[in-house]
Specification:
By secondary structure, the chain is of the alpha+beta class. It has eight helices and 18 strands.
Length: 314
């Protein structure tokens, strides 16, 4: 079975690994420069910053098996058990940055990065599918798994001959503007180095990458709240950058910003989540998954990827 997986975030990578292990011929395509999606890590000089997902929890047996493997190999560790109170759920972080977990999952898989899927349409030469790339080339497939955000999935399937009049495609996503700041000293962020804030503030989460054990030098990730991000999404980039630096000031203490960058996540988090971990279309040969199907967290995306693979394997 030839399977093309669109999206090399955690859902796509997990699906690809499961299918490859079962003997399928798997190809993954992703428009990003690296695998991982929101398992994203940026290096700025001597600093390392997670700028997408900041941590993850484990609440299901399927994900527990994966995290136990990562823990045994020293790829993840427990950061804390909460930021205000201990709620009994360890917050895990990747010792090499969150993107290192995506690279571990990618392993020997055939992944084409910087490759944008443009459309999924019935094959003109067989009973299967072809995934059209924006350069005009195609990738043939017996089945297709799509794990990108649902608005992008809708656009990909317009020519697929699939009924798209379905409310499942109309889920909207919160946006996140992120400030990545490298400092000359430790910031004034209380232990354990993570702060969760309400929606009525500029920032929804602040992560000290040095305290997390990810960065060798002081470096902080500031995630603007969905409300603030939406209100300022179309503002001039420089003015947004300056506003976030100003808002970050109270959290810096005596430290100064050495270098900073602005990151924009258009599809940061789905506002609604399907109860099922994936859905199948067109007789089961097209499968949709991702973090909108099993929960907008690393664990949900992982479990959705497993479900996508099992939907094809039976």
């Amino acid at each position: 079975m030839r399977v093309v997986v669109i999206g090399a975030g955690i859902s796509g990578l997990v699906a690809g690994r499961e299918l490859a292990a079962a003997g399928a011929e798997v190809a993954l395509v992703d428009k990003g420069r690296s695998v991982g999606g929101r398992l994203a890590t940026r290096r700025i000089g001597g600093a390392t910053l997670d700028h997408g997902a900041q941590f993850f929890t484990v609440r299901t047996p399927a994900f527990r098996r994966q995290v136990d493997d990562w823990t045994a190999r020293g790829l993840v560790r427990v950061w804390s058990h909460g930021f205000d109170d201990d709620d009994g759920h360890p917050r895990y972080v990747a010792t090499g940055g969150m993107n290192s977990l995506a690279k571990d999952l990618a392993g020997p898989l055939q992944v084409e990065t910087s490759t944008m899927a443009f459309a999924v349409r019935p094959s003109r030469e067989s009973t299967g599918w072809e995934v059209v790339i924006d350069d005009g080339t195609t990738r043939p497939a017996d089945a297709v798994i799509v794990t990108c955000p649902l608005p992008q999935t809708f656009a990909l399937l317009v020519d697929a001959g699939i009924d798209l009049d379905d409310p499942r495609f109309r889920i909207d996503y919160d946006r996140t503007l992120a400030l990545l700041a490298v400092l000359d000293a430790a910031p004034a962020i209380p232990a354990p180095g993570g702060v969760q804030l309400g929606s009525d503030t500029v920032f929804s989460f602040i992560g000290d990458n040095l305290s997390k054990g990810v960065s060798a030098v002081p470096a902080v990730t500031f995630h603007a709240s969905p409300e603030w991000s939406l209100a300022h999404w179309d503002d001039d980039r420089d003015s947004v950058h300056t506003a976030l630096l100003d808002a970050a000031g109270p959290w810096l203490g005596d430290a100064s910003v050495v270098e900073s960058h602005l990151k924009r996540w258009r599809f940061a988090r789905p506002r609604d989540v399907h109860p099922d971990p994936c859905i199948t279309l067109h007789g089961g040969s097209v499968v949709l998954g991702g973090d909108a199907f099993a929960g907008p967290r690393v664990e949900g995306a992982h479990n959705s990827g497993l479900a996508c693979a099992h939907a094809l394997l039976g």
